[in-house]
Amino acid sequence: MTGTTGIAAMGESFRAVLDIEDVDPTPWVMVPPRSGLTAPWSVWEDVRAWSREVAEELWEDHGLDPGPSGVDFGAGTLERCAEACAPPGSDHWVFLHLDQPTDLPLPVCAAVGPAAGPREATLRALTEADDPGAVEPAVVKRVESEKLGEGLTTFRYVPQADSPHLLGCVRYGWQVDEHEADVVVWTATEDVAHLLRAAGDLEHLARSLSIWAVP
Fold first, then answer.
1. What is the pTM of this model?
2. 87-120 pLDDT, tens per residue?
3. At what angle do helices 47-61 and 70-85 cross, to 10 degrees?
4. What's the domain count of the chain?
């Protein structure tokens, strides 16, 4: 997955974090941040052990027999995704969408940061609504969240320099005046079929997020 958050750099005075309490975990594996603001997360004491534990739970939850290598395969996939999408020091959440334990996950990232500027311009920047590198103009829609207010969502295709395959990219952005914060949710993948299949779950995830002010 490529792309940046579009979130302004966080200073020491910014103490808001994403609240995932109302997120339905059913289609997702949740990968916590690895920053000081939201740490300590005990799962990161041993990423390999965390990955194996989650892989075992996935097979059990789906009621399937992993066979002799299913858990090892799933654990390795989860570990690679966690290390790639949530490196040490990162302060965003990663949500891995899987239909089956053997699926290649669709990583979805979510971040919060200090408000970067005027609302409309910020929302278009967060969602890359005017990306000049897109194959064609992005599909731009308004989206309403009970927790974050009115935001913007976009879908676009972008080329890759090292691959003939296009990336399908989805972004959600909000500016929350109460917390003087911007929120962005983003994903990009060559597996457009998985992206389209997960579209409903992705929107539900984005609209379930809220902000918690750290004391």
1. 0.89
2. 877 889 999 999 888 889 999 999 999 998 999 9
3. 130
4. 1
